[in-house]
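Incident review: delayed structure delivery

Summary: a single-chain prediction request sat in the queue longer than the usual turnaround. Root cause was a stuck worker, restarted by the on-call engineer. No data loss occurred. The affected request and its eventual output are reproduced below so the record is complete for anyone auditing the incident later.

Affected input:
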Amino acid sequence: MAATPLEDLIAKAIKDADKSFFNEDYAKQARAVMAALKKAGYEVAPVRPPEGLVEWAKDNIPFGRLRPAELITQMYSMMVENVRRFDR
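Output delivered after worker restart:
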């Protein structure tokens, strides 16, 4: 089975992060993967929202006349962009 574009992105980040043959720096590789994902527009987030994020999102709902799809898109982006604030 062929690798997905996301798998290719992760593999390249690991390959580029550490060229040593011995004593690989796995933390460095992990940082490279996280940076590559972020640069490609991804964010690693928990499946369930961290405590506080839902309440915060409720207080920051975009106001105005939005179509349901626009509201969901804005809410999704807002919550994913802010998940790190509450994921501690």
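Verification: The radius of gyration is 17 Å.
Action items: add queue-age alerting; document worker restart procedure.
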